[in-house]
Amino acid sequence: MHQQPATARRVTIVDVARQAGVSTTAVSKVLRDAYGTSPHMRSRVRAAVDELGYRPSAAARALRGRTWTLGVMLPDVRNPFFADILDGVGEHLDDTEYQLFMTSGCNDATSEARVTEAMIDRSMDGLILIAPVSPPAHLDRLARTVPTVVIGRHSHSPRFDTVNDDDFTGAGLMVAHLAGLGHHRIAHIEHHETDRIRLAEMPNALRADGYRHAMHQHGLGEHIDIASTTYTRDGGYHGARILLDRKNPPTAIFAGADVVALGVLDALTEAGLSVPGDVSVAGYDNITLAGFRAISLTSVDQAGHRIGSTAARLLLERITDHTRPAAQVKLSPTAVVRGTTGPPR
Amino acid sequence: MHQQPATARRVTIVDVARQAGVSTTAVSKVLRDAYGTSPHMRSRVRAAVDELGYRPSAAARALRGRTWTLGVMLPDVRNPFFADILDGVGEHLDDTEYQLFMTSGCNDATSEARVTEAMIDRSMDGLILIAPVSPPAHLDRLARTVPTVVIGRHSHSPRFDTVNDDDFTGAGLMVAHLAGLGHHRIAHIEHHETDRIRLAEMPNALRADGYRHAMHQHGLGEHIDIASTTYTRDGGYHGARILLDRKNPPTAIFAGADVVALGVLDALTEAGLSVPGDVSVAGYDNITLAGFRAISLTSVDQAGHRIGSTAARLLLERITDHTRPAAQVKLSPTAVVRGTTGPPR
């Protein structure tokens, strides 16, 4: 039976030593499997540990080595795509001793700095950063301090591994699908970005680039039309309102993310427009809700689950050997056609 | 300028001492604001800390006191209702030094034990547990070790605070709404539960109880019909299939959670049934997606944001004074009527 003290006081190594009738040094030696402990001492200490329900503090263990803790930083907890990534990460860690802690970086560099410092302060053994917006120098500095894998950022650092969907190609696949249906006025809703580096590295910026490039390729350069909002449902709603107010509104709206497409659908329903009769709508990410029959959203599948499991595998490798060369993994997206896209009127 | 060593090695107190030209004991004293440090020594040490970018390890600090870390355990990361709770928790902590780490307990007692032990091992200053399924003795033991607030479990322990929606009343509100529309065959989809204690304490069980009680109150006791699945979209889909296969299928389905209702809507669409023309559908939680026009789900609002901020407030109070009597906060739900419910044919 566990005999816990009645107060909120934590059981300490001193309690264990007293219970076992040995010194705290002896307890400490047994707990860290050090030399110089007799089988008799070991069994007494272990019995005392069990009786008192003592758990060696991770803080104490951290001073000697691994904490078996990994940190995941998400941009926000509302985009259901990140749950797919987390499922993949979790599955790869299931057979390990690692414990996963998540925290939100709030899509803001200041907040990300605070969050990543907190994770290092907690002696986490490794970090997975999802779509971080921090400057490359900050990411590099982080990766020098703790093994790091970055998801959703097309960086090339010798210090950390990256796992990405080929966002440029994925956007092109969706333009090809819509152009193939006969659409010309295909508009895009992007996540607004002004920072030069982020314009080169963030998935949202590469999707907008891929859209522009593909429009030119299909001879639709003159119809390029982008509403610049945010990758949220509100961003989709406002983006659609902007596009519907054009003199020549689009016949198809390609949203840069599925959450954005949900907002677009909301705006179209409100405006009394039918989908895909009046306007075709497509998203990106293929969140599980996209397959929901009442929505049935055409989207680009970037295999979030596989992104997550790949990142977890790379991180464990890097923790074991932090000198191995950085890996850049790029996964190929596929278009998933459902009910929200059809030929134009 | 930050001069970081070129390797992945972490800057230690030894590096700071060398850079400052003082002993490690002196550095340690300065860092913990101890007596016996001269202004000159303090400025040299602080300059060295800045130059090297040294961050005192939370592990080392944890041995002396607070870690300024709070842990939140969620049952799963897919139910969007938990994002509302997290928003509320986060908002209350915005002006504090606390850092929030989340982890999933996977709706399973063994997994919860592992996760909560990990959070204690990491010396977290306090825990918020959302809808834990662990036995009361485990929750009590946890709360003796670390300040704890439990959300979504109708327990009465002197050791931890609880924040709950009045689930029994909430279910009654929805039955009253549906009965008021003229429905008699109102079915319920519950999260299957067999454990005696969980049947008395879990929100899902209290919602099922509230449903049964209200059906009797409205003289509809003979029409009580429950499909017992899980609080997931799959659970809603299968629950609806079970109910539609009845000899006398229901004219209204009250799902115990909005994610469940999404699965019900999916099954009805697949079966070619109109909502609310053929079948009315209601959920519980009022997730933001419920207000989405393409779904427009009637639901019970349990104010997830307020639940979260209340829990955070109670936890900070308890960290400051862990001897204060346990608080049981129960919030009142409201029915939110939207497009998925209407009179029966």
Automatic annotation (TrEMBL), chains A, B:
Signal peptide: none annotated. Residues 11-65 form the HTH lacI-type domain. Keywords: DNA-binding, Repressor, Transcription, Transcription regulation. SMART domains: HTH_LACI. This is LacI family transcriptional regulator. One of its GO terms (molecular function) is transcription cis-regulatory region binding. It holds the Pfam family Peripla_BP_3.
